[in-house]
Amino acid sequence: MSRYLFTPPATVAVPIRGRDELFPIHRIFCVGRNYAAHAREMGVEPDREAPFYFNKSAHHYVASGSMIAYAPETANLQYEMEMVVAIGRGGFRVAAADALDHVFGYACGLDMTRRDIQFALREKQRPWDLAKDFENAAVLSEVVPASITGHPEKGLVQLKLNGEVKQAGDLSDLIHPVPALIAHLSRYYHLQPGDIIYTGTPEGVGPVKPGDRLEGMVEGVGGITLSIGPAE
């Protein structure tokens, strides 16, 4: 007889390129405004002093190639194309010089956002949870081991909407690069294997509508696709 009142959720896991094992997601951390041009298009000046974060539930993961319903309670669902870091070894107060030793690999991610809700919450100085942490909001490609990708420091980050390029940035423009993010985040959390970090999006974010198709890529890492279906 089960000790649980109801069946616990299944482990959320992502395919790994070239391997039979899956990468189980522990926590999802997302970095806000980590490209200067994107910060400005959001109406604020970039903060170079320290990164800031928001979270998404692992259970809001969606695999690349999926079709999702247009999100509820928004009239402005938007895409944000990002490189994602997959942590393979835990650590606390990790030195930036050692940070990449904790990276298992990299992936492409889409941070789907209810922008109208985000702006309304921001105006009231409230947390962004309703705008960022909702079903189908964490789209992720397969994880590619760092043994294949190396540790990308530069390379195109691109998003096409229905075949038209909307975002085109470069990893070299990250305000806080991957080693700095890991070092900073590990001051506040004991990082664990399975943690993933969405590293931020370049400028050019924008709205989607039912029937749209998104195609993204990170040079040297891979690609990601998503289709938008009707609202439920």
UniProtKB/TrEMBL annotation:
Q: Which GO terms describe its molecular function?
A: acetylpyruvate hydrolase activity; metal ion binding
Q: Which residues form the Fumarylacetoacetase-like C-terminal domain?
A: 28-224
Keywords, sorted A to Z = Hydrolase, Metal-binding
What is the recorded name of this protein? FAA hydrolase family protein
Instruction: Give the organism, scientific name.
Output: Parvibaculum sedimenti
